[in-house]
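Section 4.2 – Deliverable D4.2 (structural model, holo form)

The reporting period included a commitment to supply a predicted holo structure for the target in complex with succinic acid. Inputs used:
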Amino acid sequence: MSDNTFSYDVIIIGSGAAGLGLALSLPSHIQIAILSKLNMSEGSTYYAQGGISAVLDDADSLESHKIDTIKAGAGLCHDDIVDLVVSNGKASIDWLMANNVEFSTRKNVRSDNELHLTKEGGHSYRRVVHANDSTGKAVQVALNEQVLNRDNIKIFEHHNVIDLVTRKDEKTGKKRVTGCYVLDTKKDAVFSMKSPCVTLATGGASKVYLYTSNPDVSTGDGIAMAWRAGCRVANMEFMQFHPTCLFHPEAKSFLISEAVRGEGGLLLLPDGTRFMPNFDKRAELAPRDIVARAIDHEMKRLGIPSVFLDISHRTAKFTKSHFPMLYKRCLDFGFDMTKEPLPVVPAAHYTCGGVITDRNGLTDINGLYAIGETAFTGLHGANRMASNSILECLVFAKQASIDITQYLKTAKPPSQIRAWDNSKVINSDEAIVVSHNWAELRQFMWDYVGIVRTTKRLQRAKHRITLLKQEIDDYYMNFHVTSDFLELRNLVTTAELIIDSALLRKESRGLHYTLDFPNLDDKHFKKDTVLDPSR
Ligand code: FAD
Ligand code: SIN
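Output (C-alpha cells):
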C-alpha cells in the first residue's frame, strides 16, 4: 500500500462509546475514519455491566449527583466539568435510546413502562440506567449498527495506530496534528493516514497490571501517543481497582458488577462475617477506593486468597432476572450465585488520569482531541464514581463534535506527511524479549504500584522501568514493529507516568494510598498532578 493513500476530515482512533459517540454526532458531510485494534466491539465499552448514571428519579436531583461525584473524587473534581457532565445525563440516555439502545424497564404506579434504575457505590439515589447486567453490550451493538449504516464513516478494524504525526505551525509556534502511522495487523504493513483532525478514543491502561477487569486492548496507547507527541497528562496515580472480580484461575478477573452490591449483595470473610461496616458507614456501597482497600487489608491480615460476595439471601428469581449474564457466567465457572457466596478479589479497572483536555476534548495540540477513558477532563478527581464513565464518553463526544465541526471550517488539510521508514529494520528473532517484558512489567506494577504503595516500592518499579525502556528503544530501532511490541512500548510509557505521578503525591487521597504518607494533605496536594513532556 502506498503512502498517504488515505486522507480524511477526521480520524477517530477507537471504536468504543467515545469513538462511536463522536462519529455519530458529527455532521454527515464530514468524512470520517474509525480505527480499531481488533474488531469494533473489542473494548471496555462492550464489557460494561452496571450501567450509565443519569438523574431520572423524581426524588433525585442534579445537585445530589454532583455532590456524590465530588465526594467520591476526594476533593479533586473540577466543579465546572462535573456540572457539564451531570447536567447532560438525561440527554445522553435519550440520545442512546434514539440510537436504538434498549434499557431495562419496569412498570410504574400508573402501569406505564419507565426505565429501571439500579444503585452502585457512592450514589445516594437509584440513578443507574442499565440493560440488565450487559449495558455495554447493548450500547456497543446498537452504535455499531448505526455507524455501519453511515456512508461518511469508514471502519478500519485490526489496525493499530503506532504514533501521531504533528507539525509546528510557523506563525504561532504551536503544534498541530497532521495524521498518524498505522499498522495493518492482518497484512503486517505500515502506512500513513493524514487529516487535520485526529481524536484519541483509545480507552484506558489497566492492562499495565497483572490482574485487570479490562479487555486486552486497554494498553494506554492514546495516553502514550499523546505524551510522545508533546501533550501534558494528569493524575495518572489514580488507577482504580474494582473491588469484586471473580477469583477463579480461568476467569481472567471476570467482573462481578457493583450493582450486585447495589441490590443487596454483602461482602463476607471466609467464616461468613460481614466486614465493610467496620470500614465505612456506607458499608458495601462506599466508593470503590474504600471497598477495594478494605478487601486488600482483610486479605493481607488473614492471609486469605479472596473474600466473598453473597447475594444468596435474595430470591433466585430476582437474581436470575437482574443479573442473567452474571448468573450464567458464574455457573460456567462452577458457582451458583443464587445459592452460595462468590469468591472475589480486586483488579485494576479504570484509568482516572489521562491526556489533559479542555471542556471540548481538545488537547495541547491543535486538531488533536482526546475523549473517553483516555482523557483527563477533571470529572473523576481522585476516584471515579461507578457508572460515570460511559456518561463522560458520551458528553465529551458531543462536546468534541461541536468543536471539531467549527475547527474544520478553517483548518487547512495537511500536505504530504513523511512516509514510514522501515528500510533499516529487520524481522525480529527475539519475540521472547517482548513476551518476557510484558509479563515482568505487569507483575511488578501489581506488586509495587498497586492498591497500597510505599515510596521504596515505587522507586523499585521506576528502576525497572528505566531498564525496560532501554530494551524497548533498542528493539524499536532494529526490528519491524508488531502489535505486541507496540502495546508493550505504550504500557511502559504509561507505567512510568503512573509511577512518576505517584512519587510526586506525598499524601494519601482517593485511589492513591501510600504507607509513607497515609494522611490527606490538603495544604500541599489539593491539586492535580500534571506531567509535561517538554520539562
Ligand atoms: P473502549 O471502549 O475501551 O474502546 C477503546 C477503543 O480504542 C477500542 O476500539 C480499541 O481497539 C481502540 N484502540 C486502543 N488503542 C488503539 C490503537 N493503538 N490503535 C487503534 N485502536 C486502538 N463504566 C460505566 O460507566 N458503567 C459501567 O457499568 C461500567 N462497567 C465496566 C465493566 C467492565 C468489565 C469494564 C472493563 C469497564 C467498565 N466501565 C463501566 C468503564 C467503561 O466501560 C469504560 O471506561 C468506557 O467504556 C471506555 O470507553 P472508551 O470509548 O473510552 O474506550
Ligand atoms: C460495575 O458494573 O461494577 C462497573 C461499573 C463501573 O465501572 O462504572
